[in-house]
Amino acid sequence: MNVKLTRIESNHSNLRTDSVEGVCEMPPTVGLSFLLMGKSLDPNLEHRLVHTTEVTELRLSKGVYYFKTQNSSYTLEVLS
To answer: What is the pLDDT of residues 2-45, one digit of tens each?
Structure first.
């Protein structure tokens, strides 16, 4: 799936940007980490891997996933 992950709030800065577009194999799932691969921020690298801690809460509304992890909350929009 082509998606856009947007950080709503976090107690760290590991994501480094407020949002990232990329691809994921599956949507967020409670009890599992969420993984996304996008374009690297470093022009010398090909990919950027975003890996969250376990998803603790999940809600789907109007095609947008809202989810929380141990340290952060995000939205995930499916682009295609």
So the answer is: 999 999 998 876 777 889 999 999 999 999 999 999 988 888 88
Say how many domains are in the chain: 1
Cα 57 to Cα 7, 43, 48, 65, 71: the distances in Å are 15, 34, 25, 10, 12
Strands 19-23 and 33-39: antiparallel
The C-alpha angle with vertex 68 and arms to 55 and 1, in degrees rounded to 5, equals 65
Q: Which domain holds residue 63?
A: 2-78
Cβ proximity of 30 and 56 under 8 Å: yes
DSSP code at position 69: -
Give the model's pLDDT for residue 54: 97
* Distances, alpha carbon 19 to alpha carbons 9, 31, 32, in Å: 11, 23, 20
